[in-house]
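Fold this complex.
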Amino acid sequence: MIRFDTVSKAYPGTTRPALNTVSLEVLKGEFVFLVGASGSGKSSFLRLILKEETPTKGEIHVLGQHLNSLTNRKVPYFRRNLGVVFQDFRLLPNKTVFDNVAFTLQVIGKSRGFIQEAVPDALKMVGLAGKSNRFPHELSGGEQQRVAIARAVVNKPAILLADEPTGNLDPATSAGIMTLLERINLSGTTVLMATHDAGIVDQMKRRVIELISGQIVRDERQGGYQTQAIPVQGFGAFAGTTDPQEVSK
Amino acid sequence: MRLGLILGEAGSGLRRNVSMVISVILVTFISLTFVGAAILLQMQIGQMKGYWYDRAQVAVYMCTDVDNTGNCTQAAATEAQIGNVEAQLNSPTLAPFIEKYEFETHDQAYANFQEQFADNPIAAFVTPGDLNESFRVNLVDPTNADVLIESLSGSAGVQAVEDQRGLLDQIFSILNAASYTAIGVAALMLVAAVLLIATTIRLSAFSRRRELGIMRLVGASNRFIQTPFILEGVFASLIGSLMAGAAILAIVKFFVQGYLSKTLGATTTLVGVSDAVVVVPILIVVGAALAAASASVAISRYLKV
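Structure:
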C-alpha cells in the first residue's frame, strides 16, 4: 500500500534532513498513528506520500505507483486515490457544505448524477445529513472537520491521510472524529494520522510510528503515545533497517 | 458540466478583478491599435508604390543655354542631338524596355511649370528657354531604369537622365519610418499588456489560492485548473482587440476615406475599408495568442505539484 525504502528528505538550505533514511511499509486496511514532536518530520512524511515533495534519496511506492518516477502530469490522477484531512479543515467559506463536498467531485470531472448520489451519502456517513445547505462558518469546529472528512472520502479513496485532524478540537469532539475515522478504516480504507493527542493514541491501541528528528524510533502495533510495550523493532531503526514484513503483520 | 464549471470559474475571476481586467482591456486596445495602424501604413506604402511606380517615368533632360552640368557646355541641345537620342530610344536595344515616350518641348515645360508654381513668385522669372526639353519615357518594367540611364547619360546634348522613382523612394522612406515608429510603440505597449495580463492572472490565482490548493489536493488535472485563468486573460484581451479592430475600421472609414481622401483628392490611392477588414482578424489573433501565452506562463507557478 505504502512503502518507504530508505527515504531521506532534506529541504534546500538546511543541513539537518526532515526525514532521515526512513523505511517502512503500511498495508491495506491498517490504521497508523504518526507521533512525534513538531518538526520531527510527520508532515514531510505525509507530503511525500501525496507527492507534494519528492524525496532526496530513497524510493517511495504508494498504491503500486513508484512516486519517484511519477510524471507531474499523472500526479493529479494519482491523488484521486488519496483523501486528505487537515487540522485547519480547509473548507471553502463561500460554498455550502454540500458544495464543498461536491467541489472535489466536480473538479475531477464526475457527472452531476454521481455527485447527487455520492455527496448525500458521504454527508450521511459523517452525520451531517441535515446540514447540507449550511455554510462552514455556521458550523462548529467538529462539524467543519466532519465536512472535511466527508470531502476526503466522498471519492472512496484507498488511503486517508489526516494531519492532526483533532488539533483544533476539544476532547469530546475529537472522540467523535476518531469514531468516524475508525468507521472509515473498518470499511477498508487505510488511515494514516499524524497527531499530538496522547489520549487518542493510547485509547485506540493501533499501530504507532514515532519520529524523532526525521528518524523512526519506534514502530509498534497496539502502541501508546509513549513506549509501553516492547517495540517491534529496536533502535536499528536509526540505521533504517526496518523489516516491513515484521512491522506490518 | 465541466465546461459550465470552467466558464463559471473564469466568470467569477473576471468579476472579482474588474479594475485589473479593465486595465488589461485598455492596454491591449491601445497597443493593438498601434499594431493595426502600422500594418495599415505598410499596406498604404505598398499601394502607393504600386500606383506611383506605374506612373513614374524616366526623364531624359536635354541641355539648355544655361546648363554646364552633365554633357552640357552652356549650349542648347541641337536638333541633331535630340534626333540622336530619339533614335536610340527607338533602337532595337532600348525599344523592348520602353512602353512609350513623349517629347516635352520648352513651351510645354513652361506651361507645366506655370501651372505647378502658379502661386510662386519664381514663375514670373522663368522663361521657356530656362526649362529643359525632355523625353518622358514610360518603361515596361520601371525597375529597368538603369538600362536607360546607362545608355543615354553619355550621349551628347543630354544634361541628365533621371529615374523619378528616386524621388518617390524618399516619400516611402518617411512613411516607412512612421510605420516602424508605430511598430516600436506597439511592441512596448504589447510588452506592458503581456506583463499586465500576467499580473492580473497571478492576482486572480492568489485570490483563489484556497480553491487551487484544494483542487490540487483532490487531483484536479492541470488543464482543468489552468483553463479558467487562461480564458480569463484571453477574454479580457479579446475585448481589447475587438475594440482595436473597431478603432482601425473607424480610422479608415472616417479619417482616411472621409478626411484624407477629400483633402488629397484623386492625387493618390488610399487604403480602404476592405484593407482594414483584413487587419482586424490579425489583431484579434495576436491579442488572444499573447494573452493565452502570458496567462499560461503566469498560472504555471500554481500548477507545480
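The interface with chain B takes residues 50-52, 72-73, 75-80, 82, 84, 90, 92, 103-104, 106-109, 111-112, 151, 155 of chain A (CB under 8 Å).
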